[in-house]
Design goal:
The protein contains three helices and seven strands, in the order E-H-H-E-E-E-E-E-E-H. The protein has 160 residues and is of the alpha+beta class. Strand 5 and strand 6 form a beta hairpin. The longest helix is centred in the C-terminal third of the chain and has 24 residues, at 131-154.
Length: 160
């Protein structure tokens, strides 16, 4: 098994505490509401959101994938960081064993924040992940981050 690592940073004008609450702690409620064309639903299939919990994300019928399950491996609400692993779902295909994500939301300029996301793609055998496949994943993460930012800017009372 090989591991391909990819790191990205996205900045926004929303405070770290609000972004963390929206993107990490309450994503199961918020994301399907603001991006129903991308995410049909998110539900806990085990646990209540703490370490060891498992979430299932269900995609719309027209999406290329049906669902993905991820396990919460670490959650640090004081430092706005989390770690979770995709453990099941057709998004893994025949190339991946799992994908682990480490997210940290830090203070940015002007009261905003910077989201640092490191992705670890654990491949089956000696399969290599192509750069365009990594870019597609990065683009989807950035798009969701921006949707959350826009929603929070339009609704300043949320997660305040």
């Amino acid at each position: 098994m090989g591991v391909t690592t990819y790191t990205q940073e996205d900045a926004c004008s929303v405070a770290p505490s609000r972004m963390f609450k929206a993107l990490i702690l309450d994503s199961h409620n918020l994301i399907p509401k603001i991006a129903p064309q991308s995410i049909k639903s998110i539900e806990f299939v085990h646990g209540d959101g703490g370490v060891g919990s498992i979430k299932q994300t269900n995609f719309p019928d027209a999406a290329p994938f049906k669902y993905v399950k991820h396990r919460i491996d670490a959650l640090d609400t004081a430092n706005f960081s989390s770690k979770y692993t995709v453990i099941e779902g057709d998004v893994l295909g025949d190339k991946l064993e799992s994908i682990t994500y480490e997210a940290k939301i830090e203070a940015g300029p002007g009261g905003g924040s910077v989201c640092k996301l490191t992705s670890y793609y654990h491949t089956k055998g000696d399969i290599e992940i192509k750069p365009e496949e990594l870019k597609a994943g990065k683009d989807k993460a950035t798009e969701m981050f921006k949707k959350v930012e826009e929603h929070l800017l339009a609704h300043p009372q949320l997660y305040a």
